[in-house]
UniProtKB/TrEMBL annotation:
<dbReference type="InterPro" id="IPR008554">
    <property type="entry name" value="Glutaredoxin-like"/>
</dbReference>
<dbReference type="InterPro" id="IPR036249">
    <property type="entry name" value="Thioredoxin-like_sf"/>
</dbReference>
<protein>
    <submittedName>
        <fullName>Glutaredoxin family protein</fullName>
    </submittedName>
</protein>
<dbReference type="Pfam" id="PF05768">
    <property type="entry name" value="Glrx-like"/>
</dbReference>
<dbReference type="InterPro" id="IPR052565">
    <property type="entry name" value="Glutaredoxin-like_YDR286C"/>
</dbReference>
Length: 92
């Protein structure tokens, strides 16, 4: 019998993934990256960066919203990243 995972169950920070979707030359993307690097570094969360100019599907989905931040594949925020809100989302 496999365990049932509910959305309300919190994952450990090291089991989370943050994705920053942006593009080169975007100052809001640079600002978002600084916040993500800080929070993820402090909590031990893995993060990745994706460039919408290199991915047609991401470009179609998010071009008006960049930077976009996903947490475990679900949209967390866009345009501006609030450090406290991101920290609360990722905290155990």
């Amino acid at each position: 019998m496999s365990p049932i995972f509910r959305r309300t169950e919190k994952k450990k920070p090291q089991d989370r993934t943050v994705t920053l979707i942006g593009k080169p030359g975007c100052h809001l993307c640079d600002d978002a990256q600084l916040v993500i690097e800080k929070v993820c570094g402090e909590l031990g969360v893995v993060w990745e960066k994706k460039d919408i100019t290199q991915d047609e599907e991401l470009n179609k989905a998010y071009w008006e919203q960049i930077p976009v931040v996903l947490v475990d594949g679900e949209q967390h925020t866009f345009w501006r990243v609030n450090e406290d809100r991101l920290r609360r989302e990722l905290a155990p």
